[in-house]
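Exercise 4. Each item below gives a protein and its sequence. For each, produce the structure-token representation.

Item: Nucleoside kinase (Ktedonosporobacter rubrisoli).
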Amino acid sequence: MGSRENAPTELIDKESAMFNVCPQCGEYSVEKAIDASGPFAICPFCGYAHPFLQLPLFLLSGPSGVGKTTVCLELPALLHECVVLDSDILWGAVTATPENNYQDYRNLWLRIAKNVGQSGRPVVLCGTAIPEQFEACPERRYFSTLHYLALVCNDQLLEARLKQRPNWRHSGSAENIRSMLQFNRWLKEHAATTRPAMTLMDTSQRSISETVREVAQWVRQRL
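Answer:
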């Protein structure tokens, strides 16, 4: 087993950029055992105990049109202690397939959030997703807890918002509206029974500023 003494600062800085590469033997592994006493990520090849920050991760979900993107844009001004990222920025640039419930795409975002978190600031990740897409990912082990918040609204408002979007977003098609309404209803019915459960926030009667403040408060209560 490798030394459990704190690594030099310059070594930790390098590890933050390539967290899955062992700084001692150079081997790559995602599925390292976690020793909570450090915490340490244990290299399966040489046993090196890699000290790291095991922070919580905050997932902001909901159907398209509910206000996630707007909240994601405005949240950083209120939540300086976190890094806010929109998972849609890599959609289309990175392979994301439904065959495994988009788990590869979610795992990639967990890897990004894990490395960003080594700076000492937890990540708030916005995007349409459900807990099972993250909880089974290999990178999940590097976070202390994953907290899920689902934004929803009434069906009429959601449909109206989707139809008002520019044509290039293809949000107003009958197929997309039907899909988003189904997901909106699914969240209302099942958020309390997912594992872990999702907190539900109805934005129908909330302004964007009110929603942003309540999302920031929800995060801070769990930090």
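Check: The mean pLDDT is 89.
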